[in-house]
Design goal:
heterodimer; A: mainly alpha; 2 domains; two-stranded antiparallel ribbon; 58% helix; 7% strand; B: 9 helices
Chain lengths: 202, 187
């Protein structure tokens, strides 16, 4: 992020206010904001982004009018999220004392459902990333989302291995960690649609 | 139905404060985040209960699994509130959206399915010492519940691909999937 540093006079300046973050960018030509803002600083990843964006898979995912392209991938990503985060939320609620009739160790039976969700979202997320690599990878919130997913996944794996022998304090913290990491991942994921600075490099 | 839709839109549009809040920088993303959190909570509780009825995690008593349901209702409530906020902020984008029609239909069907479950087999499957295996009727309702909620998610995700545009002649039939009122001969 470059804020308000002096720029070459011939370039015009644009201030973008996305979700309260004010950043000043130098733009080379007047372009609608949704088509991406051209930052004049060095952009070493652009050739990689352009290469991905021009691949057949990227073009198909982005431009196909088939309902099996973008709409189906987005739907799959939401369903995978519901399964993965849903199971994690249920485990967290149980660890925090909800549904006391469920033997804790038996919550493990639903670990497989979460893994199905993770798999669906790894594939659908990868396709969304291939469709718009610049959009995601130039947005810091994308890395925040990935980090939160990594934390949530690590806690899930640890908990799913042995649900029983935790102390009650540990249980509480694990439950909170699961809810915060997955809730945070959802919020970060939603914000991606509002906070991107460039849509495509090409 | 079209005049009912137009009446609905004008009713929703008259609730101004929510719309103003939703159109601030944080309003829409916040409501969407809550909507996704609520749906995860719903699927993680109601969906897991459905899976239990279908035979996943047989060692958990069905009655014990049912203790998660209040959290599912909490998730549904979060989504009802955030969903109504969307509706009040951009009424014509939902009331004339065919994907929204499907979504409402699926939600209503899921509600009727749940009602039928509670009025028929619930007492038997959740009784003390009830068998681990749910009867076929309960399994059928569980399968219906899972499919309907997944249908709700898909219809919700597809809303943006079926955004309604101003109606072109001829006039819409029974149910408008375009925004009426842009032509002179419209009442």
């Amino acid at each position: 992020m470059q804020t308000g540093s002096p720029r070459i006079a011939s370039d015009s300046q644009a201030t973008v206010s996305a979700i309260g973050i004010d950043a000043t960018y130098t733009v080379q030509n007047a372009m609608p904001i949704h088509e991406g803002i051209r930052v004049t600083s060095s952009r070493p990843m652009d050739p990689v982004f352009r290469w991905i964006e021009s691949s057949a898979l990227s073009v198909w995912t982005r431009e196909s009018t088939s309902p099996l392209a973008y709409p189906a991938i987005l739907s799959a990503h939401a369903i995978g999220m519901a399964l993965a985060v849903g199971v994690n939320a249920a485990i967290a609620l149980r660890l925090l004392g909800a549904a006391p009739g469920i033997p804790e160790v038996e919550m493990r039976r639903y670990g497989g459902v979460a893994w199905i969700g993770f798999a669906v979202n790894a594939v659908s997320g990868m396709l969304l990333l291939i469709a718009y690599p610049t959009k995601a990878m130039t947005n810091p919130i994308f890395y925040l989302k990935l980090s939160l997913v990594a934390v949530g996944l690590a806690v899930f794996v640890a908990v799913n291995k042995r649900l029983e022998p935790w102390t009650s304090t540990a249980q509480t913290w694990i439950g909170i960690a699961l809810l915060v990491s997955w809730g945070g991942a959802i919020v970060a994921g939603r914000l991606l649609a509002y906070t991107y600075r460039r849509l495509m490099a090409g | 139905m079209v005049s009912f839709q137009m009446w609905l839109v004008s009713m929703f549009a008259s609730v101004k404060p929510i719309a103003r809040l939703m159109h601030t920088a944080w309003g829409w993303p916040l409501a969407e985040s809550l909507h996704f959190i609520g749906l995860s909570l719903l699927i993680g509780t109601v969906g897991l209960f459905d899976l239990r009825l279908l035979g996943v995690g047989r060692r958990i008593p069905i009655a014990a699994m049912h203790q998660l349901i209040p959290w599912g209702l909490a998730g549904f409530s979060i989504n009802a509130v955030s969903g109504i906020a969307f509706l009040l902020a951009e009424p014509d984008q939902y009331v004339y959206n065919p994907s929204f029609h499907a979504k409402v239909l699926f939600i209503a069907a899921a509600g009727l399915n749940a009602l039928t479950f509670y009025l028929t087999v619930y007492r038997k499957v959740a009784a003390n010492g009830a068998p681990a295996e749910a009867p076929p009727a309960a399994k059928a309702m569980a399968a219906a519940s899972l499919s309907l909620w997944i249908g709700v998610i898909i219809a919700g995700r597809l809303l943006t691909f079926y955004r309604p545009f101003p109606c072109q002649p001829p006039e819409p039939g029974f149910l408008a999937t375009c925004i009426p009122g842009f032509h002179a001969n419209w009442k």
